Predict the 3D structure of the following.
Amino acid sequence: MPELPEVEVTRLGLVPGIVGRRVTGVAVRNGSLRQPVPIHLADVLLGRELLAIGRRGKYLLLDFGQGWLLVHLGMSGSLRLLATDVPVAKHDHVDLEFGQAVLRYRDPRRFGLVLWHDRAAGPVEDHPLLAPLGLEPLTDGLTGAWLYGATRGRSAPIKQVLMDAHTLVGVGNIYASESLFRAGIAPHIPARQLTLAQCQRLAAAIKETLAAALAAGGSTLRDFIQSDGSSGYFQMQHYVYGRAGEACRLCGSTILSDRLGNRSTFFCPRCQGA
DNA sequence: CACGACTCCTGCTGGC
DNA sequence: TGCCAGCAGGAGTCGT
């Protein structure tokens, strides 16, 4: 599942290959994603130079000067840079050609997005999907004090607050469980009950977890440049996620699972005091 | 306002 | 072996 580290690794992998190049072709094979892919995409993109690739939360922002292409990978999406003769596969929904290379969007479950935001509509940060997004976790803004403030008055379980993109972006189901484990905090306790000391541990744990995943992804960067079509995603070794019934890597207790907000949740009852 | 349930979609897994 | 139910999950929407 692409979470923030995977999205950032995708961004880093694409920048050297296509920034500064012009769009020479556009193909939309299946435009029914979470929202329809704009039908005028070719009109607006053909001949335009890609100036930069930014990121906000899990959204990639391809800056074409005239506007931005917003890409969200959803649950099963991927963006790869391939040679133009690589055959199209079943769920390859959108192609952007840059001369000899093609940027190919694949998304079997079609939870993702490919949208256009024209410069005339204002800065991309004002896009209705981006404007309400919360804090970027890999910035200096994420501190124990910030997290303490952000959780006051929140009665929902801390794990759900961590996954709320309007509070904090980029922490999905996997890294929420992993970060809470690292911080030694039970996932189901009401967010407002966290002490400042716990918030400080948790803020540090979120950064560590994401940074470790980003580092793991760095070694897969080649996959984006090669045209072999390999997925480009990477599997970090998890402490708790997906390990129900197995032994905790730190204390040996049996990892438990639970459902929180309709999502599977994993934790160590001993390390996380639950 | 905050919370929780529901929804979109397809591939994989497990039970029979 | 085949069929089908259930699960996975980001994030928007809606009802309370």
Helices of chain A lie at 4-18, 41-45, 144-151, 158-162, 173-183, 196-218, 222-225. The radius of gyration of chain A is 20 Å. Chain A has a mean pLDDT of 88.
